[in-house]
Design brief:
Helix content: 55-70%
Strand content: 5-15%
Strand order of the largest sheet: 7-6-5-4-1-3-8
Oligomer: single chain
Largest sheet: 7 strands, antiparallel
Shape: globular
Structural class: alpha+beta
């Protein structure tokens, strides 16, 4: 049990690490450092309508968030931290849904801090309420990200994001470590199970043996930092800054931890050398070191020093990762983690039909091995902040994609998830609301607000010359040619399609080419200039067409559009591509509708025609941002990798 002074100190250390994460995008912009594709937005972009975001009227990023982060870094007090976290949550909500998935994770963990600080009278009381809640949340969120890798397309190397990302990582490392090239083929073929296994291993080890879980999490996030193009440093630094909650002894005595770690010279030298080499590799791959990567490496050194010193060293074992303040650890934790990972991550690759029973067994074993059985945990925390926070994380992490309430900004990142038109997940359905309301009879029987939000089925976008729709579609979002040449060679050798789309980035950087161009993607110019009306066809829910048309009309330029409504019975890209239904042709002038006709007879569109409906419900547009599904020649029925 930590004393009030230790709880205060632990929360202050968390706060300072949190502040460093907040300062990273400001430092990158202030010093013109290029890097992370997923940095937190600090400009006035807004996708929900002209002036609809508070940020368009008041610069709360530079005028409020930045001063608060600096003040909290120097003077981490309860009231100041409460205000800083509250402003962060408000800023996140203001920009929804055009935020990165990890920003939703951060908001979910910052909201409990606001509640804990608002209902406490001291830093120590806040820490006792907040830190256990955040630990539970982060474990749940990591599990949710791993869970959404259990899709048929993820485990198909032809489509999988794992092969794309592995090829990218290898293309950066091979020139620096030439012998690695002999293993590249093996690593590409093993990538789906290997990467999914690591993603399941991180939360499992954080649960069973937190100090080693922190090490594994750092390794995982550092591999993300080494990606030449898909450098998601925002996610990495966000999670790195929060790993301190799993080392309460190190957090309670940060200065003592550093002294103790440095005091064990051989291990301190080893930890420092490891970080130094990693820094050199990052600079060699990216050509420079941005604030996100630099802060990550500095915090990683602190963590390594915390864990490197053996138990019982200087400071009486009260600092670092050991002593009486460390979190509970389970015996044979690494072996148990490995067993769990083997049961949940390997069967989808080796024997897909065994995925359900093997995953069930793996989860059952993990529940038995956990510090507290989930049911006992739920009963113990049914009425406190920890229980509510864990439930909120689970609802966000698992239910949103299943129901169809959230696609982008959910925990499905890089999972090759088929969000609508049938599920490709090996265990659960997706897009239930869209599927249920695709039939006109079902939509008619449902409440009007529900069918308006999720009805209409799916549509195939056949052709358009709208600069807005093209920038968000297949050609405007493809970054296959922007992958390193060696990565494309590796993908070709592994019989992978290598097609890589940035549908998520195209939406988050919509009308922010000046910001996008500063990232590792360097694809803004090509995306902004995409006006080729021969862009491949793609499928979206009716909701997304209405949302995109609202963006196009807001720009006030003339455009034309052809689309085909798809029957609910069709559920694969091959079927969608082959369907020969009646097309709807829309021509709009800058000041409004010119014509809308249906089919070869060119009958006038009715008032209920999809293209003539108003934008979708405002509240839903703050949550739901669907991924398009491109219909490519000879591409089969898999879901290609997208970011």
């Amino acid at each position: 049990m930590q004393s009030d002074a230790q709880q205060h100190a632990a929360l202050a250390t968390y706060a300072r690490f949190w502040c460093l994460h907040q300062l990273a995008p400001f430092a990158d912009q202030a010093f013109a450092l290029a890097g992370a594709m997923d940095h937190r937005m600090i400009d006035e972009s807004c996708q929900t309508g002209p002036g609809a975001c508070l940020r368009a009227h008041f610069d709360y990023d530079w005028l409020v968030r930045l001063p608060l982060a600096l003040a909290c870094l120097l003077f981490p007090g309860r009231r100041l931290l409460l205000l800083a976290h509250l402003v962060n949550v408000v800023g996140w909500a203001d920009r929804m849904p055009a935020v990165w998935d990890y920003m939703c994770w951060c908001a979910l963990m910052e909201a409990p801090f606001v509640l804990a600080a608002a209902t406490s009278s001291s830093m120590a009381e806040t820490a006792r309420k907040f830190l256990p809640a955040m630990r539970a949340q982060l474990v749940v969120l990591y599990f949710s990200a791993a869970f959404w890798k259990l899709t048929s397309s993820w485990y198909d190397g032809h489509y999988s994001c794992s092969t794309v990302l592995m090829s990218e990582l290898l293309s950066g490392l091979e020139p620096l470590f030439p012998p690695l090239a002999t293993l590249s083929g093996l690593m590409l073929h093993a990538a789906p199970a290997l990467v999914a296994g690591i993603e399941f291993a991180v939360p499992a080890l954080l649960l069973l043996q937190p100090r080693h879980g922190v090490l594994l999490a750092l390794v995982f996030h550092q591999t993300i930092n080494l990606m030449p193009a898909t450098y998601a440093g925002g996610f990495s630094i966000a999670m790195c800054a929060r790993q301190i909650i799993f080392l309460p002894a190190a957090a309670a005595g940060a200065s003592a931890t550093l002294r103790r770690g440095v005091g064990f010279a051989p291990r301190a030298v080893g930890a420092t050398a490891l970080v130094a080499v990693t820094t050199g590799v990052m600079v060699a791959i990216h050509g420079s070191l941005d604030a996100h990567g630099g802060i990550f490496l500095a915090l990683a050194l602190f963590y390594f020093l915390s864990i490197a010193a053996p138990a019982g060293g200087g400071g009486g074992g009260a600092s670092g990762a050991y002593g009486h303040l460390r979190l509970e650890e389970q015996p044979h934790a690494v072996a148990k983690m490995a067993t769990f990972v083997a049961l949940v991550a390997v069967p989808p690759a080796a024997l897909p039909s065994a995925t359900l029973p093997c995953c069930g067994l793996g989860v059952a074993l993990l529940c038995l091995w956990a510090p507290r059985f989930p049911l006992r945990f739920a009963l113990a925390h049914a009425t406190d902040l920890t229980g509510a926070a864990a439930a909120a994380a689970a609802a966000y992490g698992f239910l949103g994609p299943v129901l169809g309430l959230q696609m982008m900004a959910s925990s499905t990142m890089y999972g090759n998830v088929k969000n609508y038109g049938g599920s490709n997940h090996l265990l659960v359905p997706t897009g239930l609301l869209q599927t249920a309301l695709a039939e006109q009879s079902s939509a008619a029987a449902a409440p009007a607000w529900l069918s308006d939000a999720f009805g209409g089925g799916l549509v195939r976008i056949d052709a358009t010359n709208s600069s807005v729709l093209l920038s968000l579609a297949v050609g405007g979002a493809e970054m296959t040619d922007k992958l390193p040449l060696r990565a494309r060679e590796l993908l070709s050798s592994a019989n992978a399609s290598g097609r890589y789309f940035e549908f998520y980035a195209a939406r988050n950087y919509y009308e922010r080419s000046y910001d996008h161009d500063k990232t590792a993607l360097h694809a803004a110019a090509a995306a902004a200039g995409a006006t080729d009306s021969s862009d491949p066809a793609y499928v979206v829910p009716a909701y997304e067409l209405r949302r995109s048309l609202a963006l196009a009309r807001r720009r006030g330029e003339p455009f034309s559009l052809e689309y085909t409504p798809l029957p609910p019975g069709l559920g694969t890209p091959t079927q969608w591509r082959a369907h020969a239904g009646e097309k709807v042709s829309l021509d709009e002038a800058a000041d409004g509708l010119v014509s809308c006709v249906v089919g070869r007879a060119r009958e006038a569109c009715g008032a209920a025609e999809l293209a003539l409906l108003p934008p979708p419900p405002w509240l839903l547009t703050r949550v739901l941002l669907p991924y398009p599904i491109p219909l490519l020649d000879g591409a089969g029925d898999g879901i290609h990798c997208t970011t």
